[in-house]
Amino acid sequence: MSAADADLILHNGRIVTVDGAFSVRQAVAVKAGRITAVGSDVDVLKERGAATRVIDLKGKTVLPGLIDSHVHITGSALSEAKAKLPVFDSIRTIQAYIREKAKTTPTGSWIVVPRTLPPRLKEMRMPTKADLDVTKVHPVAFDGSYVWSANSLALKMSGITKDTPNPPAGQVVKGPDGEPNGILRNAAQLLKGVPALEQGQEAEKAEAVEKLLRLYAAAGLTSVADRAVEPQDVKFFERMKAQGKLPVRIVLTWRVNSNRPVEEIVREIKETPLTTNQGDEWLKMGSFKVTLDGGQSVGTAYQRVPYGPFGKQLYGQTDPDARGMLFVSPEKLLDIFRAARDKGWQLTSHVQGGGAIDTLVSTFEKLNAEKPLAPTRSHVMHGSYMSLETILKMKKLGVTVDAQAAWLHLDGPALSRVFGTDKMRYFFPLRTFIDNGINVAGGSDHMLGYDKNLAVNPYNPFLNMWMAVTRRTTEGVVLYPEEAITRQEALKMHTVWAAWQEFSETQKGSIETGKLGDLVVIDRDFLTCPVEEIRAIEPLMTIVGGNVVYSAAGMAAGMAAAPAPQAVKFGIPVKAGPMDSLLVKDYAPASSLVVKETRLRKAQVPVIDAHSHTSMSGIRTAADVDAWVKTMDEAGIETSVVFTEASGAEFDRQADLYLKKYPKRFQVWCGLDTKDIEAPGYPERAAKELERCYQKGARGVGEITDKGWGLQSNEQNALPRANRLRLDDARLDPFWKKCAELK
Question: Using one digit for the tens of pLDDT, what is the confidence trace for 76-126?
């Protein structure tokens, strides 16, 4: 394929090709959506024509377009289509969300807490009805994936009592008093009237999906695999493609409803005109999926061993021998998969627990005895709790893995408490997979939220690659470092290996002549930056098929537009200039206020960090504080001033957290609580609380502002009004006097 008159050239950069030699080049050219040249600046720039768009990378790094092998597009897109969701990191934040929703939700109407996973809550436990009873006039449901919780009113409205029989493979969990405690294990179907996720009109749904896909592009993703669609969903995505509303490429997985007679499922497989690889480079069918077990985050994944004592706290389990459940019998799974294989499908199954993984691999062995399975590139989806024996069977079968490295980081602390560290030996054993020649595709399992780093689950591919390389949990513990992989291997998980799993290795996954022009420009060198910086890498530009689908501010300013033919403007012939073919969306002038950068990794003299916040930094445990102090040492920070913005018990907790072990490394400031300032006696109470906080170690007050968080409705005109206090308000005088007295 000739590269003459290329549509796009990127030059003067580091082009990490991820080819067989993992070579690094200077430039790449794209024409008609495909890569036509990769090599030196001199060679590639020869392909510049009159209409070529040229980007001077100025030394920046280019990677192949990144692939996420596991997302859930529609649910994630609709989750924040109408309102931004908070980060549910504690039962307290869940309760705050319920209280806020109760203000605008009609009495008797449902409030549903969006999907939240118990291992990621500070309390590391399932909420109960007592936790959700913050409103008495609204039924409340907490979506914990395969396990839900309900408040007292929700149980009452649904007719759930101590006499309610458990549904098949489910449980109405009882408290010590014999009454339902609100936890419904694989029994959410007992709740009556819970509203489904609002789909809206197709146009609204399509708008939300396109918005999410553009967020994926901004994260550096050029291809994603939706892992749970039904045949009618395929039609929706086909319409979006026809309308030109797919900024990234999509591979669809048909998740069959297996809660039916096997004969009905087999008939549907035979009659549905879908199969693997049907479609094109923008939209095609991938795998056929059966959900075999539940989730490790809620204790329904089918394990080899019981969940144990900590499972009672984390999941609300009452059976000490509970080890999860299979949703489909091995015999039924074999019949379903045999029909799908014979139709030409690639096979996969959601399996998280070790027992479920063993069941799936055993089924694969039986199918392989009938006909070689390796050509189908069938794979284990998730496969959290592996064993060496099962890995060796997978190697023999040619079975691969769709892995979620993020769970190491986010769920490792809680799951280590459930099973003990020794049982986590083969929890996402990436090194063992790779050393045994097992292809590993990297996926996020994005289900909810728009923020790439805070979503459930985070879809930032660089965060996932960092997790695969470091295996560091949120508590700072490195979970079996011998299973860590190299950054090159982590990159392959999101490029060539992910492409191979979807039968697209000849089309994408590396920067090579003839492949699709899918590229991402990043802000630092992936191959040489410090390991801890991998998670912080930001895309500057994402290109799909040679078209720029995302550009960070300032990046397009380096794009030299091709000279256009002579134009007539306002009746006057004029010579065309570079701005004539520069689109408004690409116009981002570079700032002239630029100075030479001086980068210091450590202060030359001990310094004081005079302004820090714990709530925004995710500092919650003693291990977090230890990690912070280590960072302070590395940066030459002698003391950090912590603005807790808290009083009462919350201030006491934070003061103990910082000052007990590191009294000389932190100066802790308390907050000023003004919620009850209208109540009698407030000035004296505020001054008294300040003195109490001082005795606990507070040496300042800050920040004293609500930053607009105090906006509330005005009953007279229904318009928002500010609730910010003036600092010279007379009601604060005793507080200021006490500050002066305490110095």
Answer: 999 999 889 999 999 999 999 999 999 999 999 999 999 999 999 999 999
- What is the C-alpha to C-alpha distance for residues 160 and 146, in angstroms, rounded to an integer? 18
Element holding 37 (H helix, E strand): strand 34-39
Of residues 500, 489, 431, 491, the one with CA closest to residue 462: 491
Average pLDDT along the chain: 91
Residues whose CB falls within 8 Å of the CB of residue 703, separated by 6 or more in sequence, listed in order:
643, 645, 671
Nearest to 381 by CA among 406, 344, 356: 356
Type of residue numbered 299: G
| Residue that is written with structure tokens 């705050």 in the block | 96
Amino acid identity of 203?
A
pTM: 0.73
- Cα separation of the two ends of the chain: 77
For residue 394, CA distances in Å to 333, 335, 389, 484 come to: 18, 20, 9, 20
User: Could you give the CA distance from residue 331 to residue 327 in angstroms, rounded to a whole number?
Assistant: 12
Q: What are phi and psi of 349, to 5 degrees?
A: -150, 140
Provide the residue ranges of all domains of the chain, joining segments of one domain with +. Answer: 8-65+515-586, 73-190, 607-742
In 3-state terms, what secondary structure has residue 167?
coil
Cα–Cα distance, 427 to 478 (Å, whole number): 12
Quote the DSSP letter at residue 562.
P
3 state SS for 429-462: CHHHHHHCCCCEEECCCECECCCCCCCECCCCHH
Cβ atoms of residues 381 and 407 within 8 Å = no
Phi/psi at 678 (nearest 5 deg)?
-80, -15
Do residues 535 and 568 make contact, with C-beta atoms less than 8 angstroms apart? no
Architecture of the domain delimited by 8-65+515-586 = Roll (2.30)
* 486 close to 531: Cβ distance less than 8 angstroms: no
CATH topology for the 607-742 domain? TIM Barrel (3.20.20)
CA 681, CA 628: separation in Å to the nearest integer? 40
Domain 73-190 has CATH 3.40.50.1100: no
